[in-house]
Amino acid sequence: MVKLANVRLSNAAFKACSDGFVAIFIGGTSGIGEATVKALAANGEKCTVYIFGRNKTAAGAIISLCQDLSPESVFIFIQKDVSLLKNVDSVCEEIQNQEQKVDLLFMSQGYLTFAGRNETVEGVDTILSLRYYSRMRFATNLLLLLSASPCARVVSVFAPGRGEVGLNLNDLGLKENYSIVKSISHPAFENTFFMESLAATNPGVSFLHVWPGLVQTQEMEKSEFPGLLKWLIKWVLFPLIKLFCVPVDETGERMLFYATSGMYPALVPAISLEDLEVASGSNGEEGSGCYCINWNGETIRNQTRLERYRKKHAIEKLSVVV
């Protein structure tokens, strides 16, 4: 486990090299994304931060607070439905026209629901788009800008290890076999496999798939669960599991650590790793460039499950889908 004290030391050291840092947060107006934006503002200066979200009012309050924490940084809110891939393409083009590089792409978009398949106008299930397709479209569209950074990192917060139940390689988009469990399991596998392919072809960029643990945020209250279930979660479940939850502020600090620490380097890092502890990648190899990380910073030991689908050419099949 990476101790919180070490996380804070690393984050404090980030300030010295944060001048000119460009970060993009998808899902940055609530929950884990919001907490990480605030952690970046508290530990960085002269940064440029793009915040994508649905709630303009919430974004205004977050930006006001962040501006107080980091007066010389620039915070830009973009209100866009990122479940639509055409919207992802258009905003990526805008960023490409504005920036010379991107240092961090942090993605935590999505919401909780027990509803069935709900397609966007593009024919993609909304939940699958938010959990996987839109994330990998952002990553692929911004690869040139990420590659221009000396220490670029892509972080996708979802469910490595925890959500991996199965992957139907003949129905990756779950058009015929949709279920709540599969809507978690498919993007859990797909995030890791697609980022492994990106790490192999973009050796100067580091890719992290992170399980945040149990984090008590307002996302449950904002979910599409029935009212009675929301009430039970808020007043019965949360009080019972509170002792086992990771505080949201701590989660933000830890996510900033995962986004900036040398512990999770690219396959071909731009800096010396001498005397640095380096994590094992999703393929079991130290410093592989793609990592499945637990909430506490440790590598998730899910190589056996991943290898089962690697042998079935999952990576090759996924690479032509996004």
From TrEMBL:
<dbReference type="InterPro" id="IPR052228">
    <property type="entry name" value="Sec_Metab_Biosynth_Oxidored"/>
</dbReference>
<keyword id="KW-0560">Oxidoreductase</keyword>
<dbReference type="InterPro" id="IPR036291">
    <property type="entry name" value="NAD(P)-bd_dom_sf"/>
</dbReference>
<protein>
    <submittedName>
        <fullName>NAD(P)-binding protein</fullName>
    </submittedName>
</protein>
<dbReference type="GO" id="GO:0016491">
    <property type="term" value="F:oxidoreductase activity"/>
</dbReference>
<dbReference type="InterPro" id="IPR002347">
    <property type="entry name" value="SDR_fam"/>
</dbReference>
<dbReference type="Pfam" id="PF00106">
    <property type="entry name" value="adh_short"/>
</dbReference>
